[in-house]
Write a structure and sequence with these properties.
Elements (H helix, E strand, L loop, with lengths): L7 H13 L3 H9 L3 H9 L3 H10 L5 H7 L2 H9 L3 H9 L3 H8 L4 H10 L2 H11 L6 H4 L6 E3 L4 H11 L8 E5 L5 E6 L1 H5 L6 H4 L7 E2 L4 H11 L3 E5 L5 E6 H18 L13 H27 L2 H6 L1 H30 L8 H31 L2 H31 L4 H29 L1
Parallel strand pairs: 1-2, 4-5
Antiparallel strand pairs: 2-3, 5-6
Helix pairs in contact: 1-2, 3-5, 8-10, 15-16, 16-22, 17-22, 19-20, 19-21, 19-22, 20-21, 21-22
Length: about 450
Amino acid sequence: MADTTETLEHRLSRIHRALGENRLDAVDAVLADLEPAEIALLLESLPPAARIQLWKRVPGEVDGEVLLHVHDEVRGTLLDDMDHEEIVAAAAGMDTTDLAEIFEDLPQQVAEDMLRSMDALQRERLEETLSFEEDSVGRLMRTDTITVRSDVSLETVCRFLRWKEAVPDNTHLLMVVDRDARFQGTLPVARLISHPPEMAVADLMDHEVDSIRVDMKSRDVATLFQTHDLVSAPVVDETGLLLGRIVIDDIVDVIREDSEQALMNMAGLDEEEDLFAPVLSSAKRRAVWLGINLITAFLAAWVIGRFEGALDKIVALAVLMPIVASMGGIAGSQTLTLAIRGMALGQISSTNSGWLLRKEVGIAILNGMLWALLVAILALVWFKSVAIGVIIAAALVINMLAAGVAGILVPLLLKRVGIDPALSGSVILTTVTDVVGFMSFLGLATYFLL
């Protein structure tokens, strides 16, 4: 039994010491106490050489489950270290849904051999699962659903369950279907033991149960589970035919993956980015957005260069200039973060985006005037110039207003053209606040002071 009070950092220290001292028995002792998901987290937290050492010590009977829990890139490095027979053995015990998750990462020859080794039903189920889009319910759903008819008694259902000897994990609902396997409702398992056995399923089943379409996006299903406090839900096709079920365990994984994706994308990284990937591959990935940011930085520098004469004559402008861009950047990032969060939760649409835009304009004006007044007073005291104080105050209000508007419009426009706002929104927003900030401040100074 794993010690739930032990931190990942402590486990990592134990593993590092044991691997460094070649005490393989100590490594095995640590692994024996861990769940597959915990082993996966350890593997993701180790440099490549130590990761492969640890992977060689992972018991073969949990190889498949561990591969399911690691990120795609890490999974690829682990599969590269396994021979043909090891991969086939690791995948042999997986159900169809789990196998579909890693199937496309398998070497082609291994995948072909695995398909040949399956019986016709297994192969058909796998091919059907792979036919659905990667982020759809079809890839998530479990097909191990227990179905009953509405015209049978509870006693009949109980005999059926005893005959099966075991029920699938997380089965607290039985799915009620008609003769054509179309979904009709659900029967909570608890009602089987709390009502007379002669009662019919039809008298106790829940008829008003929302089913989930097989082509629904996994992120939308996660929202549905959260808002309706669901534990499981039936999955149907467009005709109402019952195909499987979604359970809370799968939805927790979706929520976690979406959170990681949002966090990584805000930095211009892939959510599958391996923290311990080789230097060259990591550098290539990050270079793309660094290059885009450099282009935008040169754009801001070009704007500054247009006012070189003003900067030469009035030194105070160079001193105060970063303040305007910085305040706009912070104000814009606050709005952008809230907008991206709202879009991820499905809270922002064309019906309320106008209201949000007006709200952010109001916030920008209020905060802009407040901080503009303070900055104007400080500039007046520092440089003994009323004109400079008024100019920086006006530029600050203009830039914070632009930041508020951009914080709402940029993610909406990016989403409309099919670009993830979390991935590129901050780069575009920074460009807007820098250009507008420098242009307004230096432009006003040039017009009124020179």
